[in-house]
Design goal:
The protein is an alpha+beta fold. The protein contains 16 helices and 16 strands.
Amino acid sequence: MANKINVLKGTKDILPQDIEMWHFVEENALKTFTSFGVKEIRTPIIESTDLFQRGVGETTDIVNKEMYTFEKSERSITLRPENTAGVVRSYIENGMHRLPAPVKLWYKGPMFRYERPQAGRQRQFHQVGVEMFGVSQPAADAEIILMAENFLKSIGLEDLDVEINSLGCPKCRAEFKEKLKNVIRPHLNELCEDCKGRFEKNPLRLLDCKVPQCQEIFSKTEIQNVITSDFLCDECREHYNQLKKYLDDLNVKYSENKLLVRGLDYYTRTVFEIKSNNLGSQNAVCGGGRYDNLVEELGGEPTPAIGFAMGMERLISLLKEKETSKLDGYIVSNNTTEALKLAQQLRLQGLNIEIDLANKKFTKQLEKASKVAKLALILGEDEIAQNKVSIKNLETGEQVTVDRNICAEKIK
């Protein structure tokens, strides 16, 4: 016997008994996002490595540690670790800036990051997300947050916390970065190796570190005074205050978190996370924010933009298991030809029908029918001779015999 080949570490099969939960999440995403006028987009799983180096940022853990990159025909190709950069690339390449603003796009699909597998997180994982292009006003920020919250509530998640922050624009953020570096510099040798590397290139990312020794340093009074200071310029402050007013008017409960910086370099101004109180320490189910400079950085016209993404595995881990839906009917017959013909007739009328393909005994077929279907459609010799079908309700035991030409109507 040949050696068994197992699934790769950090990847999982989505099995038939689990797929209905995925359909449930995807169908609610389609319904919710469509209600906001958002259109679906599907981008390739592989992209040029340069797209993520420029888009996500060379100082991020994603680019430095987590990307699956390979060479093919002297080109560097990467399995997408996130999808914002790919959607931005498509927006530019396909001339979507010529469409009336805002351009609203949503996506779902697999992403790939090499990291330690943990609860709700895999090396191949799935995200659902939304990107909105062309509107700089804070009303877009409010709608994006509201859309994310509506979707989460549509799948049954209620115990949610919205956290928001503003990272400012490059202009006002530059002064804040220098102040942050000045108060952290005396403690530089005490920081983890990742933070030492981030210190010069992107000091804001220091605040995203989860290493306890670093968090303890950042909790020092002199550092907290800088972190919690209001460094925003007048324009960014007005944008942030207006966003908060919109959220208040919409009855969206939120809290402000000055440590919220998100893990990607492209964010400007508004950043936010939505957290579930049922997930323990790794409790974020949605993250997003504004990235007003990314389209231009990737070769497009200057275009304001904002979006969010959610991990589907994490969402599904929070949902109650759903019962596997049953077929409309299972045909019980030892005449395979007639069973095939009846099944085709009923399927063409929109019903979900299965038949026994192995010509098992009636009792075995009825046993299978009771497990997978609501009704047993019995097609014995008498029924075939009279062009009829006996329909048995497998819950109540009630049975009726009808003409084959009205069988679908009777089942419905």
